[in-house]
Amino acid sequence: MSSLPLALAQSPPPLHCWSELPLDLMQLIFERLGFTDFERAKSVCSSWLSGSTQSKPNNKIPWMILLPEEKNYFLLFNPEDREEKLYKTQHLGDDLANSVCLATCRSWLLMATLPHERLYILNLLTLVRINLPISCGSYDTILWIDERSKDYLVIGEDLAYFKKGDNSWKKISDQLSGSQKGMVFKDHKLYALTEEELRIFDFLVSFLCKFPELT
Where are the domains of the chain? Predict the structure, then answer.
């Protein structure tokens, strides 16, 4: 009896399950998706939902964030969406309805609950929440977060700051001359401008480097 042709004798190739996709390949997929497709991909299976926490949507234009009054969710508007839909986030905590946003850093928001002014950092996409000690009552606040290391820094207009690893708020000892006009944080340096001077506080090297008085 003649043998079967080789093509028929071979067993079919094994079927691959999408849920077993390696994490690094899964992240490459997520990083190419906009917010809408990103949210849909998360619902493929539990492993994709878990893998999505290591990535974020690829949006070229910032979204508009709306906080409905006395609600525990946000509404998101994508300027790139031709259908002009509003997307509702998941439940973000019972205290969100009594919270105000003090500062933002990409998809991270610095929130304060009223009237007790408890602070927390919230990631709008991954739902990660970081609770902070009670604030010093400052509403002109800076939020900085490193997306890779997840290091964070919060600075108030009274020069009180709280960073990852701290147990309480700390305050820069040197006082500024004149009333403060504004603050900018860039490259680990805080630029504080007053009516009389500009000072730079270096959070990597040392705390104080004074510029000549402004005229």
Answer: 17-58, 172-215
What is the number of other CB atoms lying within 10 angstroms of the CB of residue 61?
8
**What one-character-per-residue DSSP string does 99-131 give?**
EEEEEEETTEEEEEETTT--EEEEETTT--EEE
Strands 189-194 and 180-186: antiparallel
71 falls in which pLDDT band (50, 70, 90)?
Answer: confident
Which residue in the block uniquely carries the two structure tokens 């509403």?
139
pTM of the model: 0.66
Residues 6+ apart with CB under 8 A from 120: 110, 111, 113, 129, 130, 131, 132
Among residues 204, 154, 206, 162, the alpha carbon closest in space to that of 183 is found at 154
154, 132 contact by CB (below 8 A): yes
Q: Rounded to an integer, what distance in angstroms lies between the CA atom of residue 30 and that of residue 27?
A: 5
CA–CA dist 78, 121 (Å, integer): 23
**Whether pLDDT at 75 is above 70:** yes
Residue 79's φ and ψ, nearest 5 degrees, are -60, -20
